[in-house]
Protein backbone atom coordinates (compact mmCIF):
# COMPACT_ATOMS: atom_id res chain seq x y z
CA UNK A 1 0.00 0.00 0.00
CA UNK A 2 1.24 3.48 -0.91
CA UNK A 3 0.07 6.72 0.73
CA UNK A 4 0.49 10.13 -0.89
CA UNK A 5 -0.30 13.27 1.07
CA UNK A 6 -1.93 16.27 -0.63
CA UNK A 7 -2.03 18.68 2.31
CA UNK A 8 -4.55 19.31 5.09
CA UNK A 9 -6.34 15.93 5.46
CA UNK A 10 -6.22 14.64 1.88
CA UNK A 11 -4.51 11.28 1.35
CA UNK A 12 -4.33 9.15 -1.80
CA UNK A 13 -4.24 5.41 -1.05
CA UNK A 14 -2.92 3.06 -3.75
CA UNK A 15 -2.74 -0.72 -3.97
CA UNK A 16 -2.18 -2.92 -7.03
CA UNK A 17 -3.08 -0.14 -9.44
CA UNK A 18 -6.28 0.94 -7.66
CA UNK A 19 -6.56 4.37 -6.05
CA UNK A 20 -8.78 5.87 -3.37
CA UNK A 21 -8.65 9.54 -2.47
CA UNK A 22 -9.71 10.59 1.02
CA UNK A 23 -11.13 14.06 1.74
CA UNK A 24 -10.07 15.74 -1.55
CA UNK A 25 -9.81 19.39 -0.48
CA UNK A 26 -7.52 20.46 -3.33
CA UNK A 27 -8.55 23.50 -5.38
CA UNK A 28 -9.21 25.63 -2.28
CA UNK A 29 -6.25 24.25 -0.35
CA UNK A 30 -3.13 26.45 -0.30
CA UNK A 31 -1.03 23.41 0.61
CA UNK A 32 -2.04 20.96 -2.11
CA UNK A 33 -0.59 22.29 -5.37
CA UNK A 34 -2.72 19.65 -7.11
CA UNK A 35 -5.20 20.23 -9.93
CA UNK A 36 -8.25 18.04 -9.18
CA UNK A 37 -8.82 17.53 -12.90
CA UNK A 38 -5.46 15.75 -13.13
CA UNK A 39 -6.42 13.00 -10.71
CA UNK A 40 -7.29 9.49 -11.81
CA UNK A 41 -8.99 7.60 -8.98
CA UNK A 42 -11.34 4.66 -8.46
CA UNK A 43 -13.28 6.14 -5.55
CA UNK A 44 -13.56 9.19 -3.32
CA UNK A 45 -13.85 8.35 0.38
CA UNK A 46 -15.07 10.97 2.87
CA UNK A 47 -14.75 11.33 6.63
CA UNK A 48 -17.37 14.10 6.84
CA UNK A 49 -18.96 16.96 4.92
CA UNK A 50 -17.08 20.11 5.93
CA UNK A 51 -15.74 22.08 2.98
CA UNK A 52 -12.08 21.55 3.90
CA UNK A 53 -12.65 17.79 3.50
CA UNK A 54 -15.51 17.54 0.98
CA UNK A 55 -13.62 19.92 -1.30
CA UNK A 56 -13.65 18.78 -4.95
CA UNK A 57 -15.52 15.53 -4.31
CA UNK A 58 -18.31 15.95 -6.86
CA UNK A 59 -16.04 17.14 -9.65
CA UNK A 60 -13.56 14.29 -9.09
CA UNK A 61 -16.28 11.63 -8.86
CA UNK A 62 -17.96 12.79 -12.06
CA UNK A 63 -14.70 13.15 -14.00
CA UNK A 64 -13.59 9.65 -13.02
CA UNK A 65 -17.05 8.04 -13.20
CA UNK A 66 -16.36 6.63 -9.74
CA UNK A 67 -18.34 6.38 -6.49
CA UNK A 68 -18.21 8.55 -3.43
CA UNK A 69 -18.04 6.28 -0.37
CA UNK A 70 -19.37 8.07 2.69
CA UNK A 71 -21.68 7.83 5.67
CA UNK A 72 -25.27 7.30 4.47
CA UNK A 73 -26.58 10.87 4.66
CA UNK A 74 -23.48 12.36 3.02
CA UNK A 75 -23.60 9.70 0.29
CA UNK A 76 -27.23 10.64 -0.35
CA UNK A 77 -26.26 14.30 -0.64
CA UNK A 78 -23.59 13.40 -3.22
CA UNK A 79 -26.14 11.39 -5.18
CA UNK A 80 -28.43 14.44 -5.20
CA UNK A 81 -25.60 16.34 -6.91
CA UNK A 82 -25.35 13.74 -9.67
CA UNK A 83 -22.45 11.67 -8.35
CA UNK A 84 -22.46 7.91 -7.98
CA UNK A 85 -22.39 7.11 -4.27
CA UNK A 86 -22.21 4.26 -1.80
CA UNK A 87 -23.53 4.75 1.75
CA UNK A 88 -22.11 3.18 4.89
CA UNK A 89 -22.26 3.84 8.61
CA UNK A 90 -20.19 3.56 11.76
CA UNK A 91 -18.90 0.05 12.47
CA UNK A 92 -19.67 -1.20 8.97
CA UNK A 93 -17.17 -2.55 6.45
CA UNK A 94 -17.20 -2.60 2.66
CA UNK A 95 -14.77 -4.38 0.34
CA UNK A 96 -14.13 -2.50 -2.89
CA UNK A 97 -11.48 -3.26 -5.55
CA UNK A 98 -9.21 -5.03 -3.10
CA UNK A 99 -9.61 -2.48 -0.30
CA UNK A 100 -11.64 -3.14 2.84
CA UNK A 101 -13.01 0.12 4.21
CA UNK A 102 -14.34 0.23 7.76
CA UNK A 103 -15.91 3.27 9.39
CA UNK A 104 -15.12 4.14 12.99
CA UNK A 105 -16.35 6.78 15.39
CA UNK A 106 -15.00 10.31 15.25
CA UNK A 107 -16.19 13.10 17.55
CA UNK A 108 -16.74 16.26 15.54
CA UNK A 109 -19.63 17.66 13.46
CA UNK A 110 -20.58 17.26 9.80
CA UNK A 111 -22.46 19.51 7.39
CA UNK A 112 -22.22 20.89 3.88
CA UNK A 113 -22.71 24.46 2.74
CA UNK A 114 -25.19 24.46 -0.14
CA UNK A 115 -25.79 28.03 -1.26
CA UNK A 116 -26.92 29.89 1.84
CA UNK A 117 -28.01 26.68 3.57
CA UNK A 118 -26.05 24.54 6.01
CA UNK A 119 -27.22 20.93 5.61
CA UNK A 120 -26.59 18.18 8.18
CA UNK A 121 -25.08 15.15 6.45
CA UNK A 122 -24.79 12.48 9.14
CA UNK A 123 -22.13 11.86 11.71
CA UNK A 124 -18.39 12.19 11.04
CA UNK A 125 -16.26 9.05 10.85
CA UNK A 126 -12.73 7.74 10.86
CA UNK A 127 -11.60 5.21 8.26
CA UNK A 128 -9.71 1.94 8.54
CA UNK A 129 -8.48 0.95 5.08
CA UNK A 130 -6.90 -2.49 4.67
CA UNK A 131 -5.22 -3.88 1.56
CA UNK A 132 -2.44 -6.37 1.00
CA UNK A 133 -2.32 -7.24 4.69
CA UNK A 134 -1.63 -3.60 5.71
CA UNK A 135 -3.97 -1.22 7.52
CA UNK A 136 -4.09 2.57 7.31
CA UNK A 137 -6.20 4.47 9.84
CA UNK A 138 -7.42 7.96 8.91
CA UNK A 139 -8.96 9.40 12.06
CA UNK A 140 -10.79 12.22 10.27
CA UNK A 141 -11.49 15.32 12.32
CA UNK A 142 -11.84 14.30 15.94
CA UNK A 143 -11.10 15.15 19.52
CA UNK A 144 -9.36 12.65 21.76
CA UNK A 145 -11.79 9.98 22.93
CA UNK A 146 -11.23 6.83 24.94
CA UNK A 147 -12.48 4.37 22.31
CA UNK A 148 -9.36 5.10 20.29
CA UNK A 149 -7.87 2.50 22.64
CA UNK A 150 -10.46 -0.01 21.45
CA UNK A 151 -9.72 0.78 17.81
CA UNK A 152 -6.06 0.04 18.54
CA UNK A 153 -6.88 -3.20 20.34
CA UNK A 154 -9.18 -4.51 17.61
CA UNK A 155 -6.99 -3.68 14.62
CA UNK A 156 -3.33 -3.98 13.72
CA UNK A 157 -2.66 -0.46 12.41
CA UNK A 158 0.50 0.14 10.38
CA UNK A 159 0.11 3.90 9.83
CA UNK A 160 -2.33 6.25 11.56
CA UNK A 161 -3.16 9.71 10.24
CA UNK A 162 -4.15 11.98 13.13
CA UNK A 163 -5.21 15.64 13.21
CA UNK A 164 -2.93 17.85 15.31
CA UNK A 165 -4.15 21.38 14.55
CA UNK A 166 -6.17 22.09 17.71
CA UNK A 167 -9.06 24.61 17.64
CA UNK A 168 -11.29 22.34 15.48
CA UNK A 169 -9.73 18.98 16.43
CA UNK A 170 -7.36 17.60 19.04
CA UNK A 171 -4.02 19.35 19.32
CA UNK A 172 -0.48 17.90 19.42
CA UNK A 173 -0.48 16.80 23.07
CA UNK A 174 -3.72 14.84 22.75
CA UNK A 175 -2.72 13.53 19.32
CA UNK A 176 0.41 12.07 20.90
CA UNK A 177 -1.81 10.29 23.42
CA UNK A 178 -4.04 9.07 20.58
CA UNK A 179 -0.94 7.74 18.80
CA UNK A 180 -0.17 5.56 21.80
CA UNK A 181 -3.75 4.35 22.08
CA UNK A 182 -4.09 3.27 18.44
CA UNK A 183 -0.73 1.44 18.73
CA UNK A 184 0.58 2.53 15.33
CA UNK A 185 4.36 2.76 14.97
CA UNK A 186 4.08 5.46 12.30
CA UNK A 187 1.96 8.61 12.50
CA UNK A 188 1.05 10.92 9.63
CA UNK A 189 0.05 14.31 11.10
CA UNK A 190 -2.95 15.97 9.43
CA UNK A 191 -5.08 19.11 9.64
CA UNK A 192 -2.46 21.66 10.62
CA UNK A 193 -0.91 24.86 9.19
CA UNK A 194 -3.52 25.23 6.43
CA UNK A 195 -5.11 28.25 8.14
CA UNK A 196 -3.96 30.52 11.00
CA UNK A 197 -6.19 28.95 13.70
CA UNK A 198 -4.52 25.55 13.23
CA UNK A 199 -0.85 26.55 13.06
CA UNK A 200 1.40 24.04 14.82
CA UNK A 201 5.10 23.21 15.09
CA UNK A 202 5.18 19.75 13.53
CA UNK A 203 8.84 19.37 14.50
CA UNK A 204 7.93 19.60 18.18
CA UNK A 205 5.18 17.04 17.61
CA UNK A 206 7.69 14.70 15.94
CA UNK A 207 10.03 15.07 18.92
CA UNK A 208 7.18 14.26 21.29
CA UNK A 209 6.42 11.08 19.35
CA UNK A 210 10.09 10.10 19.14
CA UNK A 211 10.30 10.10 22.94
CA UNK A 212 7.40 7.63 22.90
CA UNK A 213 9.15 5.37 20.37
CA UNK A 214 6.76 6.35 17.58
CA UNK A 215 7.87 7.58 14.17
CA UNK A 216 6.36 10.80 12.78
CA UNK A 217 5.92 10.90 9.00
CA UNK A 218 5.50 14.67 8.48
CA UNK A 219 5.00 14.65 4.72
CA UNK A 220 4.85 17.67 2.45
CA UNK A 221 2.19 17.79 -0.25
CA UNK A 222 2.81 15.20 -3.01
CA UNK A 223 5.23 13.21 -0.83
CA UNK A 224 4.55 9.49 -0.36
CA UNK A 225 5.32 6.61 1.95
CA UNK A 226 5.05 2.85 1.56
CA UNK A 227 3.09 0.95 4.19
Layout of helices and strands, plus pairs?
Blueprint: E1 2-5, E2 11-15, E3 18-22, E4 43-45, H1 51-54, H2 57-64, E5 68-71, H3 72-80, E6 85-88, E7 93-96, E8 99-105, E9 111-114, E10 117-120, E11 125-131, E12 134-138, H4 148-154, E13 159-163, H5 172-182, E14 186-190, H6 202-211, E15 215-216, E16 224-226
Parallel strand pairs: 3-4, 4-5, 5-6, 12-13, 13-14, 14-15
Antiparallel strand pairs: 1-2, 1-16, 2-3, 7-8, 8-11, 9-10, 11-12
Helix pairs in contact: 4-5, 5-6
Describe this protein's structure.
It is a single chain. The chain has helices spanning 51-54, 57-64, 72-80, 148-154, 172-182, 202-211; strands at 2-5, 11-15, 18-22, 43-45, 68-71, 85-88, 93-96, 99-105, 111-114, 117-120, 125-131, 134-138, 159-163, 186-190, 215-216, 224-226. By secondary structure, the chain is of the alpha/beta class. It has a single domain (2-226), classed as Ribonuclease Z/Hydroxyacylglutathione hydrolase-like (Metallo-beta-lactamase, Chain A, 4-Layer Sandwich). Helix 6 links the parallel strand 14 and strand 15. The mean pLDDT is 97.
Short précis:
This protein is an alpha/beta fold and 227 residues long. It contains 6 helices and 16 strands. It is 22% helix and 31% strand.
